[in-house]
């Protein structure tokens, strides 16, 4: 069996991240965003652990993120939904209002930071981006992806 290298796995993830970011930036339909999120989630679960590298040197500004937030906020037919931060908490937590627009924007921001940092990255900086993508998946954007997918699944289900 021919196993893929760590670099190949992360390159495939980079391509999926680019596709998701582009789809959000052009205001793609919800069904297209769902497909991108599913592919990203599956790929992120498979990202191998690597030693920590230097942090990405480029951060999306608040204004850049708000531009995407406003763009998709105008295009999406739905936004707010109910969620919990810790679904396994005992006793259960009270549900809180969450935002699909915020979920999609936060995912975009975490991925786009890495994509921008890779534009002029040496090998060490590249590994820093890879490490950060995996870390931020488990600590941040993976939670947003699951929340968004749950909403998209319910909203887009066939009525038959």
From TrEMBL:
InterPro entries: DUF5063 (IPR032025), DUF5063_sf (IPR038312). It holds the Pfam family DUF5063. It comes from the Bacteria. This is DUF5063 domain-containing protein.
